[in-house]
């Protein structure tokens, strides 16, 4: 009997299609494919006659809108609030939510309802959700969904106070849901009209709520998980919560400090540059100027909303906004750009090198590894190169337009911000294709797209070369 059992074949679990795909493809490639599938599906749904008010938009315009929604950008060649009806706007909510969380996160949540994850699937979902290890991946993804529901729920409740007063209960509640999802995912679409949120420029409740959602979505889930764990640990010990920043990780410290610096400096610069500009905030009182300036600073974290006409801003301010848009939000969240941590690493590396204070780049008494520095410089270089090439192409396809609005459009697209100097709707066919490519590259990241198509070269051994004698500067 023992020999009979010994000779029986071992029962092996049947691997799923996703597990087989994860084993034969890189996470970056699967992420790219899922994004393309969602974009194509969204473009088809938006092209349906019963998704549009009146005459349906062209497929290219619907595709542009789908790319912008899934890539949580907010640029649009049509006015979404006027072009799409209730069904079309529901499709946009779906596209923004999936694009903000990532298609693979949604797939992971659906899978968890039926069975446990395989190891290959854990690696896939950890890589695509920004998790650095494989420890309890299902719980990590569940926490992402929970935090999303909590923050968007708070935003929905606060926004409904104002929206129901202005639009009535039915429309007001729907607008509140739409804006809450759009703000938390940093998508920047609105369901109000062509003027974005200009009608509510001096409304403290709506402005502060939208800013709250943008910041919470842009900080990154990792930072919020760390805040929660820190508060829970301190309260369990019965201690008074104080000096939290000393107990945060280097990542969270860099994210929070850089974000605060960008928000305060962006507000101050907008207030100074636009203080006398009657086209923006020149005719407002001090309190309204401060509120509008802070809102514009927050929306540069890649949200895309605006309470003033961006095209009416002064030229120096438009250039400054390009820099802030490029930095963007933080890793592991819904924002785009090179990320606040990349900017922090580049700044600390540059300062340490200039001052020769340390042999290595140091942040909070911790050495930055060469791989982190290399990645930061590589990301910045790739973004810079792409911006230059695409801007040159746009000057060809949009030859009659000024350079600064085109440059602003490129920064806004690749950083998935979504604010425009007013030229998006007048782009040519070639210009629309360029902007769609930039939004897609900005959402997935140039490194991820490169990795998706690049075959890894295996090296046999380590070779060390002599130092090259090259004069720099």
Entry summary:
With about 475 residues, this protein is an all-alpha fold. The protein has 20 helices and two strands. α9 (about 135-165) runs antiparallel to α10.
Protein model, in words:
- This protein has 473 residues and is mainly α.
- Helix content is 63%, strand content 1%.
- The chain is built from 20 helices and 2 strands.
- It has helices at residues 2-7, 17-24, 27-47, 59-70, 80-83, 86-101, 103-112, 119-129, 137-167, 169-184, 204-219, 221-236, 250-274, 286-299, 315-327, 340-355, 370-397, 403-414, 429-444, 446-453; strands spanning 362-363, 366-367.
- It has a two-stranded antiparallel ribbon with strand order 1-2.
- A hairpin with a 2-residue loop joins strand 1 (362-363) and strand 2 (366-367).
- Helix 4 runs parallel beside helix 19 (429-444), helix 7 crosses helix 9 (137-167) and helix 16 packs across helix 17.
- The longest helix has 31 residues, at 137-167.
- The chain is globular.
Strand-residue proportion: under 5%
* Sequence stretches where pLDDT stays below 50 over 5 or more residues: 8-13
Largest sheet: 2 strands, antiparallel
Counting helices, strands and paired strands, the structural category is mainly alpha
- First and last CA, distance: 81 Å
Topology order in helix (H) and strand (E) letters: HHHHHHHHHHHHHHHHEEHHHH
Strand order of the largest sheet: 1-2
State the helical fraction: 55-70%
